[in-house]
Write a structure and sequence with these properties.
14% helix; 5 helices; 14-stranded antiparallel β-barrel; mainly beta; 14 strands; globular; 353 residues
Length: 353
């Protein structure tokens, strides 16, 4: 069974890399970029867009379906993000287990871009219009044995920008390896799909990403660390800014300066794939979280005042049958978005009755 599980996970990885060329573009070259927005307060607090933590948390399922378990039956999660200006987004997830079919998690994800003024080239105004994007996903997870699990999401995507709209479909596939001593490794291939209807008669690629993550809870300390590797399908995540001088090239001769600069470049390229996070749980009712995203810090920093860009922190509090999670993540010196996620087990209320 273990060899079979490993074969399935490796096959999923091979298929996704074949389907999506290794030189796939990111950031601005894809449609439906809202699919990459961090929704779960717990996930964002630890720096990333997904987590490899096998503890029956339904808020992790939308981005890692291999973590969907029978224990999520009747679990409900609501998430809201107060982003910049009038933009807000979030999701609602509900889990259900069927003895013969397996475990499922349905998620409705949305982003609301707010209201815009409708005006022509001459500045004549004709009222307002709105814009938003939505994705409905059905996730399925299955435990192959005591160590291996697999899962998949099927997504239908709708995007509406003024009078224009687009419709698409996508799937996520994932596999996880979890041990009894709280060590988990997950591999996730996200957003494999296509547009069915386009905006301007031009089909745009979806934001495909191949991710690898691991987490480990320490044996004698109530602390868990998380290491995420993002965009494994694209080795180089750097970009060339024509307005910035190249510090690694002599401005007069055009020759490379030294090997040390090259080593720094290699380190920079490697670290742009790495996200680290930690979770401290002194009691069963309180969790303190922190994360660091190197790539975000490098891309969004202002050299005169870097501040805490790339860092995130959050807290989780359990009150009665509800789990409240709050997070702030620093994207810009202008301010940090607020993330709020609430989860509960509806089945517990039914049992009480």
């Amino acid at each position: 069974m273990k060899k079979r599980a490993i074969s399935i996970i490796l096959a999923m990885t091979f298929i996704t890399l074949t389907f999506n060329q290794v030189n796939a573009q990111i950031g601005g070259d894809n449609t439906y970029e809202f699919l990459n927005l961090g929704n779960s307060s717990r996930v964002v607090a630890m720096g990333g867009k997904f987590l490899a933590i096998d503890d029956n948390d339904i808020t992790l399922a939308p981005n890692n379906p291999s973590l969907i378990t029978p224990e999520m039956d009747n679990n409900l999660a609501l998430s809201f993000v107060d982003f910049y200006q009038d933009i807000n987004y979030g999701f609602v997830s509900y889990g259900k287990h069927f003895n013969k079919l397996g475990s499922f998690a349905a998620t409705m994800q949305y982003v609301n871009y707010g209201s815009f003024t409708y005006a022509d080239e001459a500045g004549e105004r004709y009222g307002n219009f709105t814009a938003g994007e939505y994705a409905l996903s059905i996730g399925w997870g299955r435990q192959l044995d005591s160590l291996f699990s697999i899962g998949a999401n099927f997504k239908t995507i709708y995007s509406s920008l003024e009078a224009n709209s687009s419709f698409g479909i996508a799937v996520d596939i994932a596999g996880s390896y979890s041990t009894p001593n709280d060590f988990t490794v997950s591999i996730v291939a996200r957003n494999i799909g296509t547009q069915l209807t386009t905006y301007l008669d031009k089909t745009e690629p979806l934001p495909f990403e191949l991710q690898l993550g691991l987490s480990k809870k320490l044996e004698h300390v109530p602390f868990r660390y998380s290491i995420l590797l993002t965009h494994l399908e694209k080795p180089d995540l750097t970009y060339d800014d024509p307005t910035d001088p190249d510090d690694n090239v002599d401005p007069l001769t055009g020759e490379p300066l030294n090997d040390e600069s090259s080593l720094e470049d290699i380190s920079d390229k490697v670290l742009r794939h790495v996200v680290i996070g930690g979770e401290f749980t002194p009691t069963d009712n309180i969790s303190l979280r922190i994360g660091y995203n190197y790539r975000r810090r490098q891309e969004l920093k202002v050299d005169q005042k870097i501040g805490t860009l790339g860092f995130s922190w959050g807290v989780g509090i359990k009150i009665s049958r509800f789990q409240f999670n709050y997070t702030r993540s620093a994207y810009h010196l202008h301010g940090s978005p607020n993330y709020l996620t609430v989860t509960t087990d509806l089945g517990a209320f039914m049992k009480k009755r």
